[in-house]
Amino acid sequence: MKIIAGLGNPGDQYRMTRHNMGFLVLDALADDAEITSLKKKFEALIGDGRLGGHRVLLVKPQTFMNLSGRSLRQVADFYQVPPEELIVVHDDLDLPFGTVRIKVGGGDGGHKGVRSAMDHLGGGAFTRVRLGIGKPPFKDDTERYVLQSFPKADLEALAEVVRNACEAVREILDAGAPSAMNRFNARGRKPAPDEDIPAES
């Protein structure tokens, strides 16, 4: 079993904000897996289903972003799933909007939800699906920026990003993270900070 976790904040007021990209992808994956309802358990909304023949557990922590790891640890312990079998989908300020990148291990990149996951899981051995949201015009605006709703002009592109992220998750399940990295990380112009782009084999 793989755990696929999307990071975000609970509540309708946060649903379409930049910081909730992980939740948007999890909702789309739940549709793909024909999971019609998520159950509240372990401080999360959880759905058990299959994606492309793989049994998956979809997890949306309801602890708010900065405490995401507390919920993920409870889920991982109960189902006895090691961090290496965990995929975390999250927004990323260091990537331009529209970008999807795969990363295994490494630091938290300043993302407090990823940092919480690392703290509670004992390290960063899990796979990340990083979704670019770009940077705010002014550095001091970061907190307000991530909690803003996407402008209408970005909604069409957002739908494509969510589709690409779902594709990336399926590639990780079917062929492994290195294959997904070769496929997705080579897209675009140049790597963002703290990003590895493997050479094509």
Q: Which features characterize this protein?
A:
201 residues; alpha/beta; Rossmann fold; 7-stranded mixed sheet; 21% strand; globular
SSE class:
alpha/beta
* Percent helix range: 25-40%
Mean pLDDT across the residues is 92
User: Order of helices and strands, N to C?
Assistant: EHEEEHEEHEHHH
Please give the CATH class.
Answer: Alpha Beta
Rg, nearest Å: 15 Å
At CATH level 3, the topology is Rossmann fold
Tell me the distance between the termini: 28 Å
Total separate domains? 1
The low-confidence runs, each spanning 5 or more residues with pLDDT under 50, are 197-201
Main beta sheet: 7 strands, mixed
Instruction: Please tally the helical runs, counting DSSP H or I stretches of 4 or more residues.
Output: 6
The percent range for strand residues is 15-25%
Tell me the strand order in the biggest sheet.
2-3-4-1-5-7-6
Walkthrough of the structure:
The chain is α/β, with parallel strands linked by helices and 201 residues long. It has one domain: Peptidyl-tRNA hydrolase (Rossmann fold, 3-Layer(aba) Sandwich). It has helices at residues 21-32, 68-79, 112-121, 142-146, 155-175, 177-184, and strands spanning 2-6, 39-41, 44-51, 54-61, 86-92, 100-104, 127-132. Strands 2-3-4-1-5-7-6 form a seven-stranded mixed beta sheet, sandwiched between helices. Helix 1 crosses helix 5 (155-175) and helix 2 (68-79) runs parallel beside helix 3 (112-121). It is globular, with a radius of gyration of 15 Å. The relative contact order is 0.18. Residues 197-201 have low confidence and may be disordered.
